[in-house]
Amino acid sequence: MSKYFKILFFLFTTFVVQKSHAQDLHFSQYFNAPLLINPANTGFNPDFDYRVGGNYRNQWSSISNNPYKTMSIWADAQLFTERFDESWVGVGGAFLQDVAGSGNLTSTRAYASIAYHQMLGYNGLLSAGFNIGFTQKRIDLSKLTFNNQWNGNFFDISIPSNEPFVYSSTSYFNLQAGLNYALFVNDNVYLSTGISVSNINKPNESFFNKNNINTKVNSRYTFFADATIRVNNVWILNPNFYYSTIGTAKEIVLGGTLQRDLSAENNGSLQFLLGGYYRLSDAMVPVIGFDVKNFKVTFSYDATSSSLKNYNQSRGAYEVSIVKSGLYKGKDKNIKCPRVRF
User: Fold this and answer.
1) Which of 72, 124, 194, 342 is most exposed by smallest CB count within 10 Å?
2) What residues does 283 pair with on adjacent strands?
3) Domain boundaries of the chain, sorted by first residue
4) Who wins on pLDDT, 41 or 47?
5) CB–CB of 235/10 below 8 Å?
6) What is the pTM of this model?
7) Burial zone of 288 (CB within 10 Å; 0-12 exposed, 13-18 middle, 19+ buried)
């Protein structure tokens, strides 16, 4: 019995370390959370003046009574589009919260970001962005039990755990910067790629004594590449690639979606999308969605393909995102570069 509870404690401590230094908050639909991927995406929406989005993810509910629940809302907008002929500024912000585990380990984050976008001739666009964020993590230690609290019959929370917890919450500021480059090859092909670095300042994060152990959060490096290819008047192909690494952990996602214009005028006012992604050594992610007058709703499901599928019957996570793009009222949009959305 004692060995069993030692295993449970090991899994818990592994979870805390992984949650703090490896996994970080993420969505399978990373392409629908642009400000979280790269601050250079802030205000990069050439056809529109602003956009507002929300994401929700529920993970591992099939194997845990307290699954990961990750939520975010974000928004960005373009500024100074009339002042500069070949450039503009994007500003935005995001709020995220993640709750998981018996101890209700909660991570709350808020970001403010800014980006500058400069046309390079008629076909190129270079973007640079920066954000500053505030993170708070907390845990309810009263809901956790440990090996030495087992009295032979049940866990007795009146027995001291003798674990080296010093804090039940921790908070810090972090910095992120990124670059994007977009190439409008012709009327039918658009390419984009970007790289970003988060936790540039390597903040301290721990529920233990920060003077005794290394508690710095590793920098996270993220790279993405995508394309928009118009196959014909009604079909659009969107292949994507995403790579992120922090410490010894890494995440690789590749796949894409196929969009079908269902509008009678073929003007993109009603679109259906279907596709799928593969997260290397982890999950298959089918995707389905609709875009109605620039209001897009996308659903996805993580079907576990790793060894964890033996315990969760391949049921990983479901996710939904909502993105609304629009124009300022009473203003005509001055598009400075070729259209991204056909």
Assistant:
1) 124
2) 279, 304
3) 2-326
4) 41
5) no
6) 0.82
7) middle
